[in-house]
Design goal:
The structure is a single chain. Strand 4 and strand 5 (119-127) form a beta hairpin. The N and C termini lie far apart (55 Å). The chain is of the alpha+beta class. It has 4 helices and 5 strands, in the order H-H-E-H-E-E-E-E-H. It has a single domain (25-147), classed as TATA-Binding Protein. A 5-stranded antiparallel β-sheet has the order 1-5-4-3-2, covered by helices on one side.
């Protein structure tokens, strides 16, 4: 019994370590939210104009300014890093990690110019591990939008 518990504990520690160090392949995770298919698992938030129950905001700045402001906002903390793309490309994928377990969520954002110097965005935020996320991806993205002054 003691051996089984020890083995279980080692497997659990190994899984936790893997979550923290698993490589993130940009070829898999850097997905344009305008082209992404809606996932079947409830651990994602796909947010683009004309879809869903949350209206996508418009901003009183051009897309490049929005991309730079967004990047400065989300990367100021220690739990978000860039995986691929850049604000200057108007398309970035970030890795946002949960505080305790450090589960990686991938947040791909396309910044879009509108008429009159305005802009909007499309977002595809999804968990790598697990089936459901209890709305964490949606809450995170909507929180970032509020911090940017979008609601």
């Amino acid at each position: 019994m003691k051996t089984a518990l020890t083995l279980f504990g080692l497997l659990l520690l190994g899984y936790i370590a893997y979550i923290r160090v698993a490589p993130s392949n940009p070829l898999i995770w850097h997905v344009d939210p305008l082209e992404a298919e809606k996932p079947r698992k409830p651990n994602a938030f796909l947010w683009r104009s004309g879809e869903g129950k949350f209206p996508v905001p418009e901003f009183d700045m051009d897309a490049l300014s929005l991309a730079r402001a967004f990047d400065a906002l989300v990367t100021k903390g220690s739990n978000v890093t860039q995986l691929a793309g850049a604000p200057e490309q108007l398309f970035v994928t970030y890795i946002a990690r949960t505080k305790v377990m450090q589960y990686p969520d991938y947040v791909s954002i396309r910044f879009i110019d509108l008429d009159g110097g305005r802009s909007t965005l499309a977002v595809f935020s999804r968990a790598r591990f697990g089936y459901g996320d209890r709305g964490v991806n949606r809450k995170r993205v909507l929180g970032w939008m509020k911090a940017l002054g979008a609601g």
